Amino acid sequence: MALRKLGKDPESPSGGSPTVYLDEEKDSYLVQGWKVEDAGRLGQMDIPGHESVVEIPRRMVQFFLEVKKDDEDPDV
User: Fold this and answer.
1) How many CB atoms lie within 10 A of CB 30?
2) What CA–CA distance (Å, rounded) separates 48 from 70?
3) Rounded-to-integer distance, Cα 37 and Cα 40, Å
4) For 19-55, how does the pLDDT look when each residue is reduced to its tens digit (9 = 90+)?
5) Where is 50: in which H helix or E strand?
6) Are 23 and 3 in contact (CB under 8 A)?
7) Which residues, other chains included, contact 4 with Cβ-Cβ below 8 Å and sequence gap of 6+?
8) pTM above 0.90, yes or no
9) What are the backbone angles phi and psi of residue 38, rounded to the nearest 5°?
10) DSSP letters of 37-48?
């Protein structure tokens, strides 16, 4: 499996989390983030038993956008 690390939270105090990866074989993202355990927030979502929820800060969207840019630019 070829995972490509797209970026870590630039404001993380420890520099270790959250992190966004791209699985190039499955063409999907993997997100390491803070485990969501707040029942009120989870109750507003329809989460199947085989899925879970993690949270990342809004500032990390830049890492998803970078992949989109790479896909559109054949010279990269």
Assistant:
1) 16
2) 32
3) 9
4) 999 998 999 999 999 999 999 999 999 999 999 999 9
5) none
6) yes
7) 21, 22, 24
8) no
9) -70, 115
10) --HHHHTTS---
